[in-house]
């Protein structure tokens, strides 16, 4: 019985040790996964702390193609533990296979890397903005990578009045961007980033965004976060002040007088309607006539029937019916004088009736 118990204890101990060994081996392998990135075509940065800081310091070696292994000269550390290495490379070396090795005593971890798509450029610099003579807004920047200009493509993002970002691609070799006919009352903000173009071996990594450049009014913004907390208070105080002023004017009948002017009441001592209004002397003189017109007297004749005026020779004598006579001079001011009359004499009537 005692032998059986010892046998079971030995089996359990063996399994436990095996489990601990396998678990530690798996964890150790996870911490040595190396990732490499070509930074601005200047150097290769490799790190092996993807799953956390390793427990031991590893020695890093690297080589390109069939070259000899080179030990790291510049380690990256964290809490005095090596977590990465920067190795100088030529810009053309990214098309070669890059191999890495981590060693710690008898442990060796090797891995191959294809660097062609693992390039990250530095962000553009010297962003400037210019309001051109064509009334368009022009943005300019510079690339700082050793890559040829025709191998670098860009992307801009801009926004107006702190609204959502708009994105636009910029073709390789171009270092400017245009916003057509900007509003002078708006605020424009722009940033740029770049990467290697597909014509030179496209990279999957964009650079970081550049520092923003701003043009326009800083006060014209529709963002609620940037609105002054005193703005609603000013609106409310202005509305209340307007209402109180209107009530005060209505109470003293000032507003009614301003909106609806009172028609002046005529005085019983004024005989001319022109005296109701305050006309200037020159305007009153324009109502007075500056000319004299001769009066034209009017007279009326008695009607004589046609049968009474037939002459002895069978002819008909017509009597003039003119009722006006303007040939006689008459004083236009003396309207009370009787109009001159020229009645037909009785002898003429008798002579006409014979």
From TrEMBL:
Comp. bias (Polar residues): 342-354
Transmembrane domains' residue ranges: 230-250
Pfam families: CRLF2_D1
SUPFAM superfamilies, A to Z: Fibronectin type III
Region (Disordered): 329-354
GO function terms (MF aspect): cytokine receptor activity
UniProt keywords, alphabetically: Disulfide bond, Glycoprotein, Membrane, Receptor, Signal, Transmembrane, Transmembrane helix
Highest taxon of source: Eukaryota
Keyword field contains Transmembrane helix: yes
Cleavable signal peptide: 1-28
Main localisation: membrane
GO cellular component terms, A-Z: external side of plasma membrane
Species assigned in the record: Pundamilia nyererei
Keyword hit for Coiled coil: no
Domain Fibronectin type-III: 123-221
Subcellular location: Membrane
Protein name (database record): Cytokine receptor common subunit gamma-like
